[in-house]
């Protein structure tokens, strides 16, 4: 395989046969051989970036063979994900997106889908989609993604939500359906068991809330973030408070005033029409906050104060106390000098007497 790579890089004669031989090694039964073939293909594109389209076409032929093994498809996708694109390579990016979505549709059509394969495909779409230009006619795929998101693991669910956000942001509007899916996925018990998922979740929440014009929906998200933070470690709590502070900073003063105003319960609340329901039907009036509600617009966030910030302002960790207190005082959370502050003895001096 190393000889084939050297010939392909140095000698242009019969490069089609050499490339075919190297791509076929992605389907080798030995994992080490398939992984090595993937690395050789990446190195080929590093030395000959103009061959990207030719290599992608050859890999695409491997992916759509009738007798191709799932393992070969997985390593082929792993290679495609590693292709570095430029802003001028719109045609190649569009082709890759079509390949990813066709594979995603085929992978999710099976009764038992391979989560590693689905995760690799979604990683590829999230990396490639920003390099495409203009609308890509993904409406059918969007509906499929929304239906599939409630049946997958937390990691795959976050990847799907990140992709949906990218597509909808380009279309110019983030729908209520997206906010509902994100709000429900935050209650997944496996969501915060890995630090990588925590950072992806906070990043997505920041971008989503920043674009949301609905004050009460933002308040519902803030309450749910703080409810999750109450059971998490200090790094996640600090990250969550920084996200909330940055979101509030991007909103006008009237928005923040309405967000933190004292809740008032009205005894003559009007019935609220149910979304996606038949015309004329209505639900009971909302007069109280429900943490188990599926729709953040109808959870009654306007009837509950953000008391979680008061609790966090009494946290044992000095950074959490300071961040929560700054939000309550409508101050921006400053992150400069946090690392040095965390390692100083003075913030923890009140605990020293307990050990004597």
Short description:
The chain is mostly helical. The chain has 18 helices and no strands.
Ordered list of secondary-structure elements with their pairings:
Layout: H1 2-10, H2 15-24, H3 31-47, H4 52-63, H5 70-81, H6 90-109, H7 115-128, H8 139-148, H9 154-171, H10 176-185, H11 195-211, H12 215-229, H13 234-250, H14 253-259, H15 308-312, H16 318-328, H17 338-342, H18 349-352
Helix pairs in contact: 1-2, 1-3, 2-4, 3-5, 4-5, 5-7, 6-7, 7-9, 9-10, 9-11, 11-13, 12-13, 12-14, 13-16
Characterize the structure shown:
- The longest helix has 20 residues, at 90-109.
- It contains 18 helices and no strands.
- The protein has 356 residues and is mostly helical.
- Helix 6 (90-109) packs antiparallel against helix 7 (115-128), helix 11 packs parallel to helix 13 (234-250) and helix 13 runs parallel beside helix 16 (318-328).
């Amino acid at each position: 395989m190393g000889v084939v790579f050297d010939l392909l890089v140095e000698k242009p004669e019969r490069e089609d046969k050499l490339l075919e031989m190297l791509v076929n090694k992605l389907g080798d039964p030995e994992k080490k051989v398939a992984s090595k073939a993937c690395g050789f293909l990446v190195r080929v594109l590093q030395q000959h970036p103009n061959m990207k389209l030719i290599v992608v076409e050859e890999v695409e032929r491997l992916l759509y063979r009738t007798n191709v093994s799932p393992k070969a498809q997985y390593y082929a996708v792993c290679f495609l994900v590693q292709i570095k694109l430029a802003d001028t390579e719109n045609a190649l990016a569009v082709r890759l997106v079509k390949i990813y979505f066709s594979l995603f549709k085929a992978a999710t059509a099976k009764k038992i889908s391979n989560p590693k394969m689905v995760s690799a495909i979604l990683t590829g779409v999230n990396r490639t989609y920003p390099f495409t230009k203009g609308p890509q006619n993904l409406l059918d795929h969007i509906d499929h993604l929304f239906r599939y998101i409630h049946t997958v693991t937390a990691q795959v669910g976050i990847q799907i939500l990140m992709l949906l956000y990218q597509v909808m942001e380009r279309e110019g509007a983030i729908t209520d359906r997206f906010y509902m899916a994100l709000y429900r996925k935050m209650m997944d018990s496996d969501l915060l068991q890995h630090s990588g998922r925590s950072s992806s979740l906070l990043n997505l929440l920041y971008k989503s809330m920043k674009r949301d014009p609905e004050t009460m929906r933002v308040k519902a998200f803030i309450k749910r973030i703080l409810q999750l933070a109450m059971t998490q470690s200090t790094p996640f709590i600090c990250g969550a408070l920084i996200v909330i502070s940055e979101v509030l900073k991007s909103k006008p003063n009237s928005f923040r005033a309405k967000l933190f105003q004292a809740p008032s319960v009205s005894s003559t609340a009007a019935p609220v029409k149910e979304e996606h329901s038949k015309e004329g039907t209505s639900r009971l009036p909302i007069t109280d906050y429900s943490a188990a509600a599926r729709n953040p617009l109808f959870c009654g966030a306007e009837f509950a104060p953000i008391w979680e910030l008061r609790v966090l302002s009494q946290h044992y960790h000095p950074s959490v106390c300071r961040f929560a207190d700054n939000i309550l005082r409508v101050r921006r959370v400053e992150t400069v000098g946090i690392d040095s502050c965390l390692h100083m003895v003075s913030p923890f001096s009140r605990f020293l007497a307990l050990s004597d």
